[in-house]
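Any chance you could type out some protein's one-letter sequence along with its backbone structure tokens so I can compare the two?
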Amino acid sequence: MAELATIARPYANAVFDLAKSAGSLDAWSRMLAVLASTAEHETVSVLLSSPDLSPIAKAGKLGELCGDEIDDQARKFLFALADHDRLSLVNEITTQFEALRAEELRSLDVMVTAAYELTAGQKESLAQALSKKFEKEVALESAVDASLMGGAIIRAGDIVIDGSVKGRLTKLVDALVQV
């Protein structure tokens, strides 16, 4: 997994630089999302992993399937990936591009999984506190997982804050087993 990230990084950086210089971060974000979701489709995934087609033919088919959802630059990008047999990196490139875009826009996507549904006030105060802590604009999403018993788990980028009762009990059990 780390190897894929390392290989995909230069491509993600190049697309990000291109999009930033052209002022088209949002457009590239949409096009990469279309490419990634199309490439993830079961039938397309089989096509892209087929040894019967050349990488250039695979790029052409993927571009064809995306239709008007991608522009000529995105098609050229697909063919550049195909030239280096890197079409399989589309999802990782998209993930890294989105991380670069979020950093550029100074925004952070935060996922809060709580034992119970958060009220609007709780979401607002949590978003403000996280915005202050990370010094970024926070886009907060929430989900409910009753197995947590209480509290919440906050995922912000690669940071995980486990304030759930389940997490605390697990830590307690681990500490008692260590003794």
